[in-house]
Each structure stands twice: as structure tokens, then as C-alpha cells.
Amino acid sequence: MIPEIAVRTLRLMSRWAKPYQSMIAREIIERRKINPLDPEIAISQKHRHALFLGIASNDNNKVRTLSTKTVNNFLKLFAAQSKVNWSLASHQFRRKFANYVAHSQFGDLRYLREHFAHWTMDMSLSYAMDESWGGHLDLDLYEDILAELKDIKIDAVRSWLSDDSLAGGNGRSLKKWQRDASNLAIFKNHQSMVISIAQSTSIRSNGHAWCTADNGGCVGNTMERTRCGDCDNAVIGQRHLDIYRQLYGNLIALLACNDIGESGRTRVLRDIERCRDVFNQLGYDPEEQSA
Predict the structure, then answer these.
(1) Is the pTM for the entire model greater than 0.70?
(2) How many domains does the chain have?
């Protein structure tokens, strides 16, 4: 999904980085000798296998991954030395890589969305617009993604409108809406109702819930994922039950630790209650299942 020159560059950087990687390895060994609990060890390990490394003169000459600012300074220096009238910057490489992925036979916009941490597929789809290759939209790619997205949304809504219980603020609202026969009467049949809701609702999966927020205000993609249980935009179904069971078990085990402090214990208890609230909405009793 990248041009041959990029492959050659990465191979060259792998060789170039080896001495720096060795310096970090020696740093880790020395730090462990002095203090095995030195928090700097974990930081050093994060940079251990990086390729774009350099010596940080402003940080006791440690070997660390080059910062974006440093890389951009080097790129501008390179452009000036090459007498190129171009404000070269690292983000331009990011876009070019995305264009190659979008147009590659091995490309997958879902991967691109995860790789770049895009909030919606729309941002990834914009990379199918290739300015340097004619400024056209890759219609086949666009249609394939839209067709798959449509099927996923319809399947999700169909599961919401089944007889199964739902949790989350929007899940509860859906079930309340579904119990009112007058709401159902406006649709020709069940299938048309499913399609209508799927088309009019923003639906994304964050792994532990369906999110229907149509902006960047999601509260469940942060460290506090248990907040989805009471979020007005969340729909949590039976398919998510295993995730909450595992999370609940981990929290119970964490509660038994004697080194998490009072604030840690308070947070664990709060998240346990959030999980129990989800279980209650889904009609599941964790204590009964473990008995």
C-alpha cells in the first residue's frame, strides 16, 4: 500500500536506527541496576523499537523518538538545501499515505479510520479524493463502503427492535418508543421501519455499545467507558453482555487489591455500580450466574 521508495526508506531507517536502539537498550539496563522501579524505564521501552530516533540534547542526551516539531524542522531544512520552494511538513506524508491506501487493491478504509483515529468514516472517505491523480472521487470504493455501512446499520437496528432488552439511554428510549403502537403504525411494515431508522440515525460501534451521537461529544471512547450505560446516545444490547461481564469480573478482582488507594477504590465501586445498572437493564444477574 506504499510506493517502492517508501519501502527502501524504511529498510534504510531500520539499519540507521540500530545504534540508537542499542543505546536505549543500554540505558534500560543501567537504570534497572540503579533502581528497578525507575519510571523512566517504561518511557525508554516505548522508544526502544522506534525507527526515527535522535539524541535529545535538551534532555540529558537521551535517545528518544524525534518529535513532530523536530521532523518538520528537518524537512524544511531539506527543502531549503534542495532549493525547493515548498513548505514541506510531516502531515503531507500522512495524507499521501492515506491516498495510497484508499486506492490500493489491498486498501481498506476501515483500517485507515482506525490507523488515523478518525471519528467517522466520512473523514477516511475524503482520502479517496486524490488531487494529484485527477481530483476525482473513487466512486467504486465509495459505493462499496456505503453499501457495507448500510447493511451494518440495518442489522444493528433490526437487533434493537427485536424482543431483547436494551440498555443505555437511547436503548431505553427505543424500547419505550417501541411499546407505543401509534409509533409503529406510521410504517408500512417492519422492514420499512428498520430501514427508516437506520437511514436517519448516526450509528457507530465503540466495541462496548452502539453510539448514536452525531457529533464528537461521545463520552464512552475515553477511559471511562462505563459511562455509556447512562448516556442518552448509547444503545447496549445482548451482544455487548460478554464485554460487560468481563469488565465486571476485572473490577471485582481490582477491588480486592490493597494498593489502589481510597480514590482508586471509590472509582472501582462507581464502575461496578455502572456495570450492575447495565446488567439490570439487560435482565442479567451476575451474582446468580456466578453462584
Answers:
(1) no
(2) 2
How far apart are alpha carbons 234 and 209 in whole angstroms?
Answer: 6
Q: Which residue has the cell 455499545?
A: 209
**229 in Cβ contact with 275 (< 8 Å):** yes
Retrieve residue 107's grid coordinates: 486498501
- Whether the pLDDT of residue 211 is over 60: the answer is yes
Residue numbers of the domain that contains 49: 4-66
Report pLDDT digits (tens) over 140-196.
Answer: 555 666 677 788 888 899 999 998 999 999 999 999 998 888 888 888 888 989 998
Give the chain's largest Cα–Cα span.
75
In a domain, 109, yes or no: no
Q: Are residues 170 and 285 in the same domain?
A: yes
Does residue 25 lie in a domain region? yes
Return the H-helix or E-strand segment holding 130: strand 129-130
pLDDT, one tens digit per residue, over 234-257 is 999 998 999 999 999 999 999 999
- Closest Cα partner for 205 from 232, 233, 181? 233
- Domain endpoint, select from 31, 66, 101: 66
In degrees and rounded to multiples of 5, residue 107 shows phi and psi of -70, 150
Grid cell in block for residue 42: 517504561
Number of Cβ atoms within 10 Å of the Cβ of 123: 15
